[in-house]
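Incident log, support desk, overnight shift.

02:14 A customer reports that sequence design results differ from what the structure should imply. Their input is reproduced verbatim below. On-call engineer (initials T.W.) acknowledged and began investigating.
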């Protein structure tokens, strides 16, 4: 079979046909997937009924895995439900039960409902995220993807000039604080210390510029905090207009991958205290920081 990609949206997203991700990929398939990511930024692979091992094997075709850990969440190793290579983007406890409404982990994970880019809170942010739908709710739980390239292109020349060299501080402390989750331990505060990220990124293959926004971005270096947050809020509102957003309605065994360098995403509400949503993510590590790091 020949791998083909069908556009799903005028500016972002494509659906892939002609590949079985349970099998080893050819060099041509890997090249086609990477080229598709460069063009569409989000790729949907329907009907991929994968095991954890198969998802990890597929992911390794695309680069080195970024390992989940203390820098990414508040889950202790003894409470992990999944193998160490997978991030658990679900509403399930280690015993495969839904979290109680006031569970601390559930409260923390509600931050995924804010527009964000995965791992922008790491000094070297991630490249791709790869999410497999193992169990989905009856309704809700869609994931929305915003094209940050289109968001940048829509800015006027004066704004592009103003933000060209700006650097932001990113941290889980900020994104979770937006929802009122601020009861962090000293260990968690140390793990989540801010890192620096450029506000504008240039794609290494296409040369196309994009905004690098996220709910993790709490301020702009050298700016008063209220002014910085006002600008960041305006940019996020402009960049997530409907014409820049692809909404993915999950089907069982969909696998969706996206380029964190060119997109933001968020999950939408569902009945997460009564229905199970089992989503498992592998993440392809980035290879360089967006800006030289210093104490943020």
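02:41 Re-run completed on a clean worker. Output:
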């Amino acid at each position: 079979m020949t791998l083909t990609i069908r556009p799903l949206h005028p500016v972002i997203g494509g659906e892939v046909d002609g590949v079985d991700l349970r099998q080893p990929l050819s060099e041509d398939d890997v090249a086609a997937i990477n080229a598709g990511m460069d063009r569409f930024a989000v790729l949907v692979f329907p009907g991929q009924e994968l095991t954890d091992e198969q998802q990890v094997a597929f992911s390794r075709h695309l680069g080195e895995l970024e390992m989940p850990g203390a820098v990414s969440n508040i889950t202790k190793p003894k409470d992990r439900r999944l193998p160490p290579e997978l991030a658990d983007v679900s509403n399930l406890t280690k015993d495969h039960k839904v979290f109680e409404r006031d569970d601390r982990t559930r409260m923390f994970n509600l931050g995924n409902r804010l527009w964000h880019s995965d791992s922008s809170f790491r000094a070297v942010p991630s490249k791709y995220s790869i999410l497999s739908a193992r169990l989905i709710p009856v309704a809700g739980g869609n994931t929305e993807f915003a094209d940050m390239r289109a968001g940048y292109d829509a800015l006027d020349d004066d704004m592009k000039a103003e933000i060209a060299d700006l650097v932001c501080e990113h941290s889980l402390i900020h994104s979770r604080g937006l929802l009122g989750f601020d009861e962090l331990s000293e260990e968690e505060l140390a793990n989540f210390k801010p890192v620096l990220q450029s506000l504008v990124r240039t794609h290494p293959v296409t040369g196309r510029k994009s905004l690098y926004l996220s709910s993790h971005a709490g301020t702009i270096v050298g700016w008063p905090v209220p002014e910085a947050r006002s600008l960041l809020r305006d940019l996020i509102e402009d960049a997530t207009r409907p014409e820049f957003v692809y909404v993915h309605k999950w089907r069982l065994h969909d696998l969706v991958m996206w380029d964190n360098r060119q997109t933001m995403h968020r999950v939408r509400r569902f009945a997460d205290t009564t229905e199970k949503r089992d989503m498992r993510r592998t993440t392809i590590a980035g290879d360089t920081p967006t800006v030289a790091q210093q104490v943020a």
